[in-house]
């Protein structure tokens, strides 16, 4: 996380930047780089339970200037940048939650996971971004011991919940498209999955809460995580966290979306399929494309921060670089900005979310809500039964009356015979042979879904 410059680069002034070098990312906690504080003479290593430093390094350094004190104009620009992220992330994700929960048409399995993702992002922006930014600027913890524990605990929890909500969506899309005849997740099963994600997130982040401490000194108050076995244990923990909240879920989503992409875009569909089938295929492609963009955005935003943490932990001399504070603030801003892009992506790529945002901002003079937008969020217009899909070609048998010429005129009896199945083109869905039509239909349709869910 935010590795701080070496002690000789700063003094104990309130403007010093001695914010954490140890957490997963500054977004995932606020730990102070304790060795720097010890070397800087703020308090002894014995007070913190650390190994004693050499006599030379434990002496206070006098007459040193703090090269990391920023001019007012730069602080103003960083404050504006972080303020925009927090405002857009909090209000944008709250509107996403309202759009889904307030409209029955939007309550699908995918969208329930999007609610969980939006809640995680909004929470991280509201409770973590500005607090870490203020701590990085002033190197003073203003928020008390309880919030110190929360601040070190909750961000890891929120990031875990965010990325595993995306992973759950990827797996759900995979199952719906690759094996469409299997039943989809029920509302109860979806709640269980979401609850399990949060429980695992709490367990992963619990050590951060357990070992969080504050140190009150005459000149400042510090919030940090004191690991029992020192920096090596701390580094190991955060490498594990990076693997679990970044590398592993991105690998799973990369595999599933690659297979789904090959399935949806990789080949020609046999036969001359119907318009409704193409409508459903197009809708599925749109949803998958939107979620791929969400995942790629998350990966790009968090990559520089994870690289920053690993490099500054291995090569600690980088913390003495003149511009390291600006690198940290930039990488932390980019990581936090991942919380604000999803509502923008939904609005641009999904017509129902776009209609919902128009309704939310209809008070603006330049926003006009059309009747089509209102209709997009109404109750679904198609209601396929669970026993049969609206878009699945079914085998129909008809009964015809056939006159047998061997019968006499006075009997004129009729014999009902079963005729051969009609051409499935009666439904308007295919002019090819029935076998290929059925294969095509099962490729994309399911008795448990309709095109409404993917639009």
Automatic annotation (TrEMBL):
<keyword id="KW-0449">Lipoprotein</keyword>
<dbReference type="InterPro" id="IPR001013">
    <property type="entry name" value="NK3_rcpt"/>
</dbReference>
<feature type="transmembrane region" description="Helical">
    <location>
        <begin position="192"/>
        <end position="214"/>
    </location>
</feature>
<keyword id="KW-0807">Transducer</keyword>
<dbReference type="InterPro" id="IPR017452">
    <property type="entry name" value="GPCR_Rhodpsn_7TM"/>
</dbReference>
<keyword id="KW-0297">G-protein coupled receptor</keyword>
<feature type="transmembrane region" description="Helical">
    <location>
        <begin position="234"/>
        <end position="266"/>
    </location>
</feature>
<comment type="similarity">
    <text>Belongs to the G-protein coupled receptor 1 family.</text>
</comment>
<feature type="transmembrane region" description="Helical">
    <location>
        <begin position="113"/>
        <end position="138"/>
    </location>
</feature>
<feature type="compositionally biased region" description="Low complexity">
    <location>
        <begin position="435"/>
        <end position="455"/>
    </location>
</feature>
<keyword id="KW-1015">Disulfide bond</keyword>
<feature type="transmembrane region" description="Helical">
    <location>
        <begin position="75"/>
        <end position="101"/>
    </location>
</feature>
<feature type="region of interest" description="Disordered">
    <location>
        <begin position="404"/>
        <end position="455"/>
    </location>
</feature>
<dbReference type="Pfam" id="PF00001">
    <property type="entry name" value="7tm_1"/>
</dbReference>
<feature type="transmembrane region" description="Helical">
    <location>
        <begin position="287"/>
        <end position="307"/>
    </location>
</feature>
<protein>
    <recommendedName>
        <fullName>Neuromedin-K receptor</fullName>
    </recommendedName>
</protein>
<keyword id="KW-0675">Receptor</keyword>
<feature type="disulfide bond">
    <location>
        <begin position="148"/>
        <end position="223"/>
    </location>
</feature>
<dbReference type="GO" id="GO:0097225">
    <property type="term" value="C:sperm midpiece"/>
</dbReference>
<keyword id="KW-1003">Cell membrane</keyword>
<dbReference type="GO" id="GO:0004995">
    <property type="term" value="F:tachykinin receptor activity"/>
</dbReference>
<feature type="transmembrane region" description="Helical">
    <location>
        <begin position="327"/>
        <end position="349"/>
    </location>
</feature>
<keyword id="KW-0325">Glycoprotein</keyword>
<keyword id="KW-0812">Transmembrane</keyword>
<dbReference type="GO" id="GO:1902093">
    <property type="term" value="P:positive regulation of flagellated sperm motility"/>
</dbReference>
<feature type="domain" description="G-protein coupled receptors family 1 profile">
    <location>
        <begin position="92"/>
        <end position="346"/>
    </location>
</feature>
<dbReference type="GO" id="GO:0005886">
    <property type="term" value="C:plasma membrane"/>
</dbReference>
<keyword id="KW-1133">Transmembrane helix</keyword>
<dbReference type="InterPro" id="IPR001681">
    <property type="entry name" value="Neurokn_rcpt"/>
</dbReference>
<feature type="transmembrane region" description="Helical">
    <location>
        <begin position="150"/>
        <end position="171"/>
    </location>
</feature>
<keyword id="KW-0564">Palmitate</keyword>
<keyword id="KW-0472">Membrane</keyword>
<dbReference type="InterPro" id="IPR000276">
    <property type="entry name" value="GPCR_Rhodpsn"/>
</dbReference>
């Amino acid at each position: 996380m935010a590795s701080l410059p070496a002690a000789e680069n700063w003094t104990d002034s309130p403007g010093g930047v001695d914010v954490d070098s140890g957490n997963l990312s500054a977004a995932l906690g606020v730990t102070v780089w304790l060795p720097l504080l010890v070397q800087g003479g703020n308090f002894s290593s014995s007070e913190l339970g650390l190994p004693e430093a050499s006599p030379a390094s434990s002496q206070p350094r006098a007459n040193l200037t703090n090269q990391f004190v920023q001019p007012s104009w730069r602080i103003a620009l960083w404050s504006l940048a972080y303020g925009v992220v927090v405002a857009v992330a909090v209000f944008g994700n709250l509107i996403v939650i309202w759009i889904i929960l307030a409209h029955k048409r939007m309550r699908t399995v995918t969208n329930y996971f999007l609610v969980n993702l939006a809640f995680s992002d909004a929470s991280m922006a509201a409770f973590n971004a500005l607090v870490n930014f203020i701590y990085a600027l002033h190197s003073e913890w203003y928020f008390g011991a309880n919030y110190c524990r929360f601040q070190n605990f909750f961000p890891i929890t929120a990031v875990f919940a965010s990325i595993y909500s995306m992973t759950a969506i990827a797996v759900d899309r995979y199952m719906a498209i690759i094996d469409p005849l299997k039943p989809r997740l029920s509302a109860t099963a979806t709640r269980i999955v979401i609850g399990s994600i949060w429980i695992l997130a709490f367990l992963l982040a619990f050590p951060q809460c357990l070992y969080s401490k504050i140190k009150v000194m005459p000149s400042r108050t510090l919030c940090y995580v004191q690991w029992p076995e020192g920096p090596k244990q701390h580094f190991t923990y955060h490498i594990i966290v990076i693997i679990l909240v970044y590398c592993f879920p991105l690998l799973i989503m990369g595999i599933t979306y690659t297979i789904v992409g090959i399935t949806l875009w990789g080949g020609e569909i046999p036969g001359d399929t119907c318009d409704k089938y193409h409508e459903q295929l197009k809708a599925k492609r749109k949803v998958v494309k939107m979620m791929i963009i969400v995942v790629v955005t998350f990966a790009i935003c968090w990559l520089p921060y994870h690289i920053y943490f690993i490099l500054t932990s291995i090569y600690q001399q980088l913390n003495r670089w003149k511009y390291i504070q600006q690198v940290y603030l930039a990488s932390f801003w980019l990581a936090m900005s991942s919380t604000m892009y999803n509502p923008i992506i939904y609005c641009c790529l999904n017509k129902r979310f776009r209609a919902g945002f128009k309704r939310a901002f209809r008070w603006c003079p330049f926003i006009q809500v059309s009747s089509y937008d209102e209709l997009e969020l109404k109750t679904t217009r198609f209601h396929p039964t669970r026993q049969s899909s609206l878009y699945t070609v079914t085998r129909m048998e008809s009964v015809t009356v056939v006159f047998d010429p061997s019968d006499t005129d006075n009997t004129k009896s009729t014999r009902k015979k079963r005729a051969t199945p009609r051409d499935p083109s009666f439904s308007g869905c295919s002019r090819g042979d029935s076998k290929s039509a059925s294969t095509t239909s099962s490729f994309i349709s399911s008795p448990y879904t309709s095109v409404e869910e993917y639009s």
